[in-house]
Amino acid sequence: MPDSFRKILGVRFYISELEGLLDLLEDGGLIVFPSAPVMVRLADDPAHREALESADIAVTDSAYMVILWLLRTGERVRRISGLRLLRGLFARGGLWGRGDTFWVMPSAGDAEGNIAWLRANGFDISAEDAYVAPMYPRQGPISDPGLLELLGKRRPKWVFIALSGGVQERLGADLRARLGYKPSILCIGGAIAFLSGRQTAIPVWADRLALGWLLRFISSPAAFSAKLRGVERLAPMIWKYGSRSVASG
Questions:
Q1: Which of 59, 158, 173, 219 has its CA at 20 to 30 Å from residue 179's CA atom?
Q2: For the segment 171-186, what is each residue's pLDDT rounded down to a tens digit?
Q3: Which is nearest to 99 in space by CA: 152, 154, 150?
């Protein structure tokens, strides 16, 4: 396995410099940013596990996972948050012509607010470049024929899925398998909402210090605590399996 990648719980994580990762994104494929709660779900849902393990690139968004890996192996793995990657991608410039990007949003309000922010920051984008996702099943495979047909007709180079973790990865895996071309499919979760103001803003310094979770907790303690339910299971999973898939028993 190249030195730029490391398997953790069977998922292929990129562990090198941000610039190298930004270059790789141009090649297309499924790119996931699994948080600690999303990693925990590897043990619960075979379809979710298959989506993460088959991803072309997983990004080390979870500081908790990086710390656990260090404690288990002694290896310092570089953390790259989804928010940092998105900022880096936007800063490159010259990537976003009309029709180059397509955004899968969780609600009409998110679509409107995020598109307004993107337009204000130089994107040539319209309401037709966004899709409000229906309610997908919590477990098992996901397929959305309407979205698949729309992407097949528009053929954007970049597909950003801004849904909740555990859902967006399964959707992204199905799109990659069924589309007749190879876009870059990025499962960015709430990263765009942190920038647009739809969710709690996370300054660059807080993201660098891995304190985004604290700002989100302060902003909405009950909602954020619910997102972390079950995360304590990640430590014993990493201790038991290390680089192996949880399906290995």
A1: 59
A2: 999 999 999 999 999 9
A3: 154
**pLDDT surpasses 90 at 229:** no
State the pairing for strand pair 57-59/11-14. Answer: parallel
How many residues does the structure list for the chain? 249
Yes or no: say if 107 and 132 are a contact pair by the CB < 8 Å rule: yes
Whose tokens are 């410099």? That residue is: 17
236: number of Cβ within 10 Å: 10
**Side-chain-facing half-sphere of 149: CA atoms under 13 Å:** 3
- Look up residue 166 and give its DSSP letter: T
Calpha distance 76→186 (Å, rounded) = 25
Alpha-carbon distance of 160 to 168, in angstroms, equals: 10
Sign of the torsion formed by the C-alpha atoms of 109, 146, 46 and 71: negative
3-state secondary structure of 75: coil
Residue 190 is classified by DSSP as T
pLDDT value for 1 = 42
| Per-residue pLDDT, 211 | 47
For position 228, what pLDDT does the model report?
58
Q: C-alpha distances in angstroms, 212 versus 209, 215, 218, 232?
A: 8, 5, 10, 19
Query: d(Cα 72, Cα 49) in Å, to the nearest integer?
Result: 22
Give dist(CA 126, CA 118) in Å, integer.
Answer: 10
